[in-house]
Structures are given as C-alpha cells and as structure tokens.
C-alpha cells in the first residue's frame, strides 16, 4: 500500500477535529499552536467562503515537508461547472485588510 502525504475530509468540522487531535499529541509548543490556529482558520473559512460562493466537495489536508496545508475542493457554477482547489490560509489572508 502506498502512503500519500495527504488526507481527505468531508467537512471543515472533521478537519478541525483532526487538527486538534494532532495538537494534543504534539510535544513542540510552536507546532501545537500552529495546529490549533489552523483548526480555527478552517472553521472561519467555512463560515466566510461558503456564505456566498460555490459548494464544498471536501478538504485535503496536505503534509508538505512537515508543514500542514489545507485546501478546499470547491465546485462553482450550475450548467458549466468548474472545480477549484482553494488554499484556505491564502484565501483568508487575501480577505484581511
């Protein structure tokens, strides 16, 4: 069996719960804070992004060289549907003044 460097979750709550579980087992304070902060961002993204845009198909939690990245797979449109992978942290940063 091949191990992929990502996991798939259906909801933001599932992602946040998993990140918080990982934070409980993390012994480095900096990494623990990062995971808790990322869990909060996932929930914030879900509330803000999907209030007016697209349908969330799920979330990929990617481990890239020790850094955790969360991307939402979003479907846009009705008849001419297209998919977009949205990096939640990049999207939130673009919204903050």
Question: What this model shows, in words?
Answer:
By secondary structure, the protein is α+β, with helices and mostly antiparallel strands. Helix content is 44%, strand content 31%. A hairpin with a 5-residue loop joins strand 3 and strand 4. The protein is globular. The mean pLDDT is 90.
Offer a quick outline of the entry:
This protein has 97 residues and is α+β, with helices and mostly antiparallel strands. The protein contains three helices and four strands, in the order βααβββα. The protein has one domain.
Which properties best describe this structure?
alpha+beta; 3 helices; 4 strands
Topology:
Blueprint: E1 6-9, H1 12-25, H2 29-49, E2 55-64, E3 67-76, E4 82-87, H3 88-95
Antiparallel strand pairs: 1-2, 2-3, 3-4
Helix pairs in contact: 1-2, 2-3
């Amino acid at each position: 069996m091949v191990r992929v460097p990502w996991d798939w979750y259906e909801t933001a709550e599932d992602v946040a719960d998993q990140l918080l579980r990982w934070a409980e087992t993390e012994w480095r304070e900096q990494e623990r804070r990062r995971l808790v902060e990322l869990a909060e961002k996932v929930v914030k993204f879900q509330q803000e992004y999907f209030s007016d845009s697209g349908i969330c198909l799920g979330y990929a939690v990617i481990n890239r060289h020790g850094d955790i990245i969360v991307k939402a797979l979003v479907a846009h449109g009705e008849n001419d549907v297209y998919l977009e992978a949205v990096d939640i942290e990049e999207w939130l940063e673009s919204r903050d003044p």
